[in-house]
Design goal:
By secondary structure, the chain is mainly alpha-helical. It contains four helices and no strands. Helix 2 packs antiparallel against helix 3.
Length: about 80
């Protein structure tokens, strides 16, 4: 598997892996009719926005690495009580 593909499939690097997979699966099931999958696209977009804002905050605060690991993300989402996206 190419390095880029491995990085995109790594849950520690890609926080929106589930949303990405769901939108791709929807496209496959609906013969690539984007209108039928708009809900999945919106969830993915909101996921990326949310984790990007977290990453920006962590950079500003000097926290390394800027993207929380999968375990840290689970703790963050657990503390919020619900999915923010």
């Amino acid at each position: 598997m190419p390095l880029v593909t491995r990085r995109l499939r790594d849950p520690d690097i890609n926080p929106c892996l589930l949303e990405s997979d769901a939108s791709a699966r929807c496209m496959d099931e609906n013969n690539y009719d984007g209108e039928r999958c708009s809900t999945y696209f919106l969830k993915y977009k909101n996921c990326r926005k949310f984790w990007n804002s977290i990453m920006i905050q962590r950079r500003q605060n000097g926290v390394k690495p800027p993207m929380p690991t999968a375990a840290e993300r689970d703790e963050i989402l657990g503390a919020m009580g619900k999915m923010p996206y």
